[in-house]
Design a protein that fits this description.
The protein is α/β, with parallel strands linked by helices. 56% of the residues lie in helices and 7% in strands. It has 12 helices and 5 strands. The chain has a 5-stranded mixed β-sheet.
Length: 314
């Protein structure tokens, strides 16, 4: 079984393909110019079981798309996994050759399973949300700076907000149009938005950030979002459970939806009030409500069952 890794760089250094069987080499076993990294014929000459790339902020998308279209078993791994594998072997230095070797070690040890790439519509929706996110951040930052700012500077801060608001409104319209045009996305969107607290932005964000929402178990989905309690036990000591990792953007949007649900959703509201009455902190209670609401939404999509409003019970 042959596993190959590809090191993709934005610099004019060659991209390298390294079989995991050649880990002892000083560098990549084959090199290709960066502009030819997507040439499928060069890759198909190899007999790969899987092609492993590291996520590089979008630079890997052209290669991944070309290989997946050609039917090659390509998979993109998280850079943190590669760094952890390098640290586990005592590697601290960083060069292209060393990082390519670390990626090969990671691929050989973990053997990540190739997953199908999202369809064109899903990629377009993710691009819209990806553009909307920084615009919202810039608008929020500008609004925060307005507090206590003198009139002269306030005009400079408010000037870009006009076109930012227009761009955000245009993106919202495009997002709504694309969602309504797809029967599959429209059905999932309707199921999620029936739950109080989940609005027209939170619903598609959850579906795009968590494509496995519905098919996976509640424990897996909670870990994806980053609201799963992680054990900290040692021997007979029972440590404190903590939350860590997950999809940051999806968690941020979902936390706002859950905050709304603690006021408008009867079940979540009663659950939150019970936790607060028991002395739990507000953020602890909100995180627990996120976990509970996420479990409900996962069950709704799994069983294709609409939300049934019920009065909360203590």
């Amino acid at each position: 079984m042959t596993c190959h890794v590809l090191w993709v760089s934005m610099w004019p250094k060659p991209s390298g393909i390294l079989p995991c069987a050649l880990l002892g080499n000083a560098g990549p076993s084959r090199t290709m110019p960066a502009g030819l990294a997507t040439r499928v014929d060069r890759v198909q000459a190899l007999p790969p079981t899987r092609m492993v790339l590291e996520a590089t902020g979008g630079l890997e998308r052209a290669v991944t798309s070309a290989w997946a279209t050609a039917g090659l078993p390509v998979v993109v791994v998280h850079p943190r996994q590669v760094r952890d594998c390098a640290r586990a072997t005592g590697q601290r230095a960083t060069t292209d050759a060393l990082e390519a070797r670390a990626l090969a070690h990671c691929a050989d040890g973990i053997r990540p399973t190739p997953r199908p790439l999202p369809d064109a519509q899903t990629q377009a929706l993710r691009a819209l949300l990806g553009r909307r996110q920084p615009l919202l951040g810039m608008r929020t930052a500008a609004q925060n700076r307005l507090t206590g700012t003198k009139a002269r500077l306030a005009k400079d801060i408010e000037a870009p907000m006009t076109w930012r608001n227009a761009d955000i409104a245009t993106l919202d319209d495009d997002l709504e149009t694309m969602l309504r045009a797809s029967p599959r996305w429209r059905a999932n969107d309707d199921v999620l938005q029936r739950a109080k607290g989940i609005g027209p932005v939170c619903a598609p964000t959850l579906r795009l950030a968590l494509p496995a929402l519905g098919p996976r178990t509640r424990q897996q989905i909670a870990a994806w979002v980053g609201v799963a309690p992680l054990n900290g036990d040692r021997g007979t000591m029972r440590g404190r459970r903590t939350m860590w990792g997950g999809r940051a953007h999806g968690r941020t949007v979902f936390s706002m939806g859950t905050l709304v649900a603690t006021r408008s959703n009867p079940q979540i509201k009663v659950f939150s009030e019970r936790l607060l009455a028991a002395g739990k902190g507000k953020k602890v209670a909100l995180t627990a409500c996120m976990h509970t609401l996420l479990t409900m939404l996962n069950a709704l999509l799994k069983h294709r069952t609409p939300w049934q409003p019920q009065e909360g019970q203590n």
